[in-house]
Structure formats: structure tokens, C-alpha cells
Amino acid sequence: MYLNELKEKPVWQMTGQELLNLLKEIAVNESPHSSTNQSKDTLSKRYVYGIRGIAELFGCSISTANKIKKEGKIKSAILQYGRKIIVDAELALELFSKK
Q1: Distance from C-alpha of 80 to C-alpha of 94, rounded to nearest angstrom
Q2: What element of type H or E holds 51?
Q3: Is 50 in the same domain as 94?
Q4: What pLDDT is recorded for position 33?
Q5: Domain tally, the chain
């Protein structure tokens, strides 16, 4: 009942302790819901963008990253539309290590 009253109370009228109690309660109640709403694939995917992103991923220069892209070593990890380049980082590292 106390938490319901706090939820109705404006933040500027709360004491510090009341605000902390409310935030703790919300964090405890919300954490299981947020992890079940997102799938594991969405959480594990990491993307890099552009030639600069490829260079940072492999720790090389931009010209070397451009060569890697043009050689086709990581072709299946790259999505490109016009000048926009999106690279699945995990897949690119896996493909690069195989070749």
C-alpha cells in the first residue's frame, strides 16, 4: 500500500528515502520482464558500421579494411545499400579467422 501511495505522489514532494524505495521496487519488479522481452539473438548481435567500423573491428588501417572488404573474405557478414555498410561483427571475425 505504501508503494501505491508513492506512485501517486509527485517526485518533487518525495524525500530522498521515499524516492530510493520507489526506484528499488521498480528495479526489482522490472528486471525479469525486460530480459524475457528481448531474445538472446538480439542481445548477442553486435554490428559495426562503415569501413571505419571494419577497421576498428580488426584493428587495422582504413585502407587495409577496404582491402579486406573488397577481397570478399567477410562478404556474407556485410549488408550494403548504396554507401551504407553494416557488418555483423561476430560473423565477420569468424569468417576472417577461417580464411
Answers
A1: 19
A2: helix 50-58
A3: yes
A4: 47
A5: 2
Residues 56 and 92 placed together within one structural domain of the fold: yes
CA angle 61, 66, 69 (to 5 degrees): 125
State the DSSP H helix or E strand holding residue 78, giving kind and residue range, or none if neither: strand 78-81
What 3-state DSSP class applies to 9? coil
How long is the chain?
A: 99
- Distance from C-alpha of 59 to C-alpha of 45, rounded to nearest angstrom: 19
Task: Please state, in angstroms and rounded to a whole number, the distance separating the CA atoms of residues 14 and 23.
Answer: 12
Domain that holds residue 49: 44-98
Could you report how far apart the first and last alpha carbons of the chain are, in Å?
A: 63
Question: Residue 43 pLDDT > 70, yes or no?
Answer: no
Whether residue 26 has pLDDT greater than 60: yes
**Residue 13's Cα: distance from chain center in Å?**
36
Are 22 and 66 contained in the same domain?
Answer: no
- Judgement on whether residues 63 and 31 belong to the same structural domain of the protein: no
